[in-house]
Amino acid sequence: MTALVEVRDLAKVFDVSPPWLNRVVERKPRLFVYAVDGVSFSIERGKTLALVGESGCGKSTVARLLVGLYAPTRGSVRYDGLDASAARASDGRGLRRRMQMIFQDPYASLNPRWKVADIVAEPLREHALVAGEQQLTERVGQLLSSVGLAAQDMEKFPHQFSGGQRQRISIARALATEPEFLVCDEPTSALDVSVQAQVLNIMKELQRAQGLTYLFISHNLAVVRHVSDQVGVMYLGRLVELADKARLFNQPRHPYTRMLLDAIPDIGMSGRSRIPVQGEVPNPLAPPSGCSFHPRCPHANQRCKSERPPLQTIGGVSIACHAVEEGRI
Amino acid sequence: MAPPAVSAPLLEVRHLRVEFPTRRGTLVALDDISFSIAPGEILGVVGESGAGKSLTGAAIIGLLDPPGRVAAGEIRFQGRRIDNLSYEEMRKMRGRSIGAIFQDPLTSLNPLYTIGRQITETIQTHLQVSALEARSRAIRLLQETGIPAAEARIDQYPHQFSGGMRQRVVIALALAAEPKLIVADEPTTALDVSIQAQIIALLKRLCREHGAAVMLVTHDMGVIAETCDRVAVMYAGRIAEIGPVHEVIHSPRHPYTVGLMGSIPAMDADRERLLQIDGAMPRLTSIPRGCAFNPRCPRAFDRCRIERPDLIDAGATRAACWLHATAPQELVQ
Fold first, then answer.
1. CA-CA distance, B227 to B225, in Å (whole number)?
2. Residue A281 contacts B, CB cutoff 8 Å
């Protein structure tokens, strides 16, 4: 099995410096946020990689880098062997057609002044995938029914739909160009649980039927466990652990992964003991030295404070932790 | 799990009905809500957006946004009716007897005042203490909520605190006048999971120490499971099921609760497909006749489409479902 998407040492640095005048007059320093700092992973065709982490860990930035909404500062994304940076070029249309994105907020990602027919037809028109209006209408109807909506719904406006239905419209729009790869940035976090279940079921069915590959971004570990094949855990712009789903959830290795899993409320009320979570995510403008998790880590030692652990394969799992490497945990 | 039955409930809500008069007719946002909270008890209120859970909390603390109003029923606090109090009387109750914690910690703090000023103001409004005493109480409260270097941070402004720390300040503020009941409306929804776990543990511990009862409004069943003694499941402005947390989660009696529980991805079991409730909750303008859940209910029968069920004893819980009127143990998950 070859990887459809290959990401090597991807980084995105945002310049958040104060304006030039303030820097000169008030001697304010330049400031940079390392939103994504050297992330590497690959996704096999037909599989789902989930990225999890808390707010500000860079997971959404990775999503935007992958579909070319941001230009990477460093590193590369290869898509089916091709350099994905070409997707940003004006002649990258062919590549753009093959990857699509689903956004978090279905209230913000659909134009309220457009009918559903136009929203779903836009990519078809843009990429000239159909000939003639009649074929277009047919195709839009097909797309809507593939996500469980009625073909007649195309005459309505977004405000006539509930949140879950809107998210289905976003999915229909994303599927219009028959992409192979979908980047889903928190597709269900704005939805209620019963509606979330509907959307997750549809996404899984579509994956099975059309062999789609997903990058699934979420902060909800239970959802990630449900949809993914592989899981990457991010902390302050870096991957700290990357493993198969079963392995990550059954034998989490990195202290941060363990902490995240421990923090989930226990709905089964099994009474399992939990390690209380310490501290908060540090300010990304001034990340800690060494391993960025060390101020919250119960296993941190001197080396963790000074030396940044690289992501390396230990026992079949990619992990960035000195304590795991040294066999301390 | 459940606290021993106490003869006098701290809060009693009876047949509460909240209406919003609009140009196109009156919307009934809460319809015939009845429940009670015992002293020291934690009652969870769970439901999807628009079910009326936040509105129930707002009605109790007397902060319904106009034109919303209590149209029928009553709310009693320590035996005294509070739903018909004047604005001024209610203002004295709020904070002193009933504290409130809201979802967004940034908007519930005044950005122009130091947190110390906000807490001491609350203390001095409700309790007869000197300014010095109020300040030392405020520091003690901040220490209790786990804010490091409370003596120094008391003179800082809300923007100097992180989201989790701000929510700790809000909790300190809610507890400042030692209220007997705290209405917490989605207190952890704006926070990351690791912070959420800290805040939930803190809220639970402090309310136990201070002997305060809590009405915890949330959409997160996991938070309910961890925190509450009893839970009320709301649907379309009514209580669908109410009972001890353990019973509601492990053997729900109302088909809506069954669906709700089944649609949550589990951490300890693999399922290819989540149980799904088709459709969505009705809008207030088009609540169906009979049981509001009947168009989505896999087990609806004729009576459900005509007659609206009240809460009926269904084993360990009470469910508003006709299935339990005939054969109580019929519903098996």
1. 6
2. yes
From the list B201, B260, B273, the residue facing A194 with the nearest CB is B260
Is residue B15 classed as helix, strand or coil in its secondary structure?
Answer: strand
Chain B residue with the nearest C-alpha to that of A264: B193
Q: Is A36 helix (H, G, I), strand (E, B) or coil?
A: strand
B277 in contact with chain A, both atoms CB, cutoff 8 A? yes
DSSP for A117-175? HHHHHHHHHHTT-S-SHHHHHHHHHHHHHHTT--GGGGGS-GGGS-HHHHHHHHHHHHH
Distance CA(B309)–CA(B323), nearest Å, equals 10
Q: Cα distance from B273 to chain A (closest Cα, Å)?
A: 6
Asked if residue B333 lies in contact with residue B259, where contact means CB atoms within 8 angstroms, the answer is no
Query: What ranges make up the beta strands (E) of chain B?
Result: 11-22, 25-37, 42-46, 69-77, 80-81, 98-101, 181-185, 213-218, 230-235, 238-244, 312-314, 317-319
Q: Which residues of B touch A54 (CB under 8 A)?
A: 192-194
3-state secondary structure labels for all residues of B289-326: CCCCCHHHCCCCCHHHHHCCCCCEEECCEEECCCHHHH
CATH topology of domain B11-228: Rossmann fold (3.40.50)
Is residue B74 exposed (0-12), middle (13-18) or buried (19+ Cβ within 10 Å)? Answer: middle
Query: How near does any CA of chain A get to the CA of B143, in Å?
Result: 15
Chain A residues in contact with B245 by the CB 8 A cut-off are: 269
With CB atoms and an 8 Å threshold, state whether A193 touches B263.
Answer: yes
Digit-coded pLDDT (tens) for B29-58: 999 999 999 999 999 999 888 899 999 999
Minimal Cα–Cα distance from B80 to chain A, Å?
A: 36
pLDDT tens for each residue of chain A, 329 residues long: 578 999 999 999 999 888 899 899 988 888 898 999 999 999 999 999 999 988 888 999 999 999 888 899 999 999 888 887 777 777 778 888 899 999 988 888 999 999 999 999 999 998 888 888 899 999 999 999 988 888 889 999 999 888 888 999 999 999 999 999 999 999 988 888 888 888 899 999 999 999 999 999 998 888 999 999 999 999 999 999 999 999 999 999 999 999 888 888 777 766 666 666 677 788 888 889 999 999 989 889 999 999 999 999 988 899 999 999 888 88
| Sheet with strand A213-218: strands edge to edge | A99-102, A181-185, A213-218, A48-52, A230-235, A238-244, A317-319, A312-314
Q: CATH 3.40.50.300 spans which residues of chain B?
A: 11-228
Give chain B positions within 8 Å (CB) of A57.
Answer: none
Q: Write down the pTM of the prediction.
A: 0.85
ipTM of the complex: 0.79
Which residues numbered 51-70 in B keep a CB inside 8 Å of some CB on A?
none
Query: Looking at domain A3-325, what is its CATH homologous superfamily?
Result: P-loop containing nucleotide triphosphate hydrolases (3.40.50.300)
